[in-house]
Amino acid sequence: MKAAHTLTRTREGRREFLALPRVTLETSLQGKVRGVTRLALRPITAGASREVDLVVEDSSVSRVHCEFALRPEGVVVRDLDSKNGTWVRGVRIREAVLWVGDAVTLGQTAITVKAEAGERIELPTETRFGEAVGASASMRLLFEALRRAATGDHTVLLVGESGTGKDVLARGLHAESPRARRPFVVFDCSAVAPSLVEAELFGHVKGAFSGADTARVGLLEQASGGTLFLDEVGELPLELQPKLLRVLETRQVRPIGSNVTRAADVRVVAATHRDLQARVAARAFREDLYFRLAVVVAEIPPLRERREDLPLLVAHFLARQTPPRRLEDLPQGALELLESHGWPGNVRELWNTVTRLMLFPSLGPAALSPETGRASRVKGALERVAHLPLKEAREAMVLEFELAYLELKLKEHGGQVAAAAEAMGVSRQFLYRLLHRHGLKGDGAET
Predict the structure, then answer these.
(1) Helix (H, G, I), strand (E, B), or coil: what is residue 262?
(2) C-alpha pair distances (Å), 250 with each of 202, 247, 266, 270, 364
(3) Which residues on neighbouring strands pair with residue 28, listed in sequence order?
(4) Which of 112, 135, 359, 434 has the greatest number of CB atoms lying within 10 Å of its CB?
């Protein structure tokens, strides 16, 4: 028995190939085979809903029960907060790597992994999509998929951890699309009070509610002809989700207080760090809206799973410094230090770290450890920026202060954003923006 992982890269001259096994999932109920589903690079969902990829006819199975994905380490199954659980080798799991022949039990149903020699695909050569860069197989395949998706008008859902660059990829989708010359409008669903979301998206007429002294054009209309990027769509209030679904289906929008609908010629790109499938299973996100958003799903791998991209990313970030820098300008041993880090904040954390290293070369390992390096960053900061022009020195000091202050307040309040914001005398929305800027996390602050 061996693990079902044959995602192997080979090189022939300048061409690279990925060996992709033929993996199938055989569904059986009480020993009788009910169907066979092919598992390729795109993850598939299983459950009782008619909207999932692998429909299971079993009353003890949740509507969106679990997900199967082909990864370099093997076939990975992940439970999506199902009611009766997902079981492998007699153990209830949250996530597990499967072996060929393993059976995953959902209720009374068994889904068995089968594998055989499959196809070999040539990896795309392009290592850039918009402002995003990556030379790993996962990123090159992602860029190729997004480049194809950009030519159409389908809704795209970008899924990935905080800091993986979902906003950068969204801009790339717009720039590569026929709508590139039209507006690109961004709406962060997590940074606006729930009571204001509807007015922001749909607009309102004069007198629609208290304080509506003038009419306001909503973001859906502002993006007419272009792209609306819904960042952190998983935070969209449940009561507004049917209205967004209606816009996506009818391509029409009705401002608050109006009886007239208007055309909404807009492409929607959505992003989330949340597990929307699990939120659907928990009835915290509408299933019909999820499947309407997930016409094209692009999963962005975390930086720790594509460490081979680090030199390219660091060189890219250095080139964007003022003045532009090169890898040779890094302090001695810095690249090795960067490659040894776990990068919980992903690409955003890498950008912040590279910036700190260039501003304060003497930091060394402290640049990677905000908690242990806080004192060394703040103490003597004036001396370290004394050679800079006033504007750059001020920006560097503000960056250092904000980061140290945020870390201190989050630690004092156990990572609780609401409590930290109250202690700081700022709104939660403002604190979320600061956390986003510095690649930090609190309870739900991942953006």
Answers:
(1) strand
(2) 14, 5, 11, 18, 55
(3) 33, 110
(4) 359
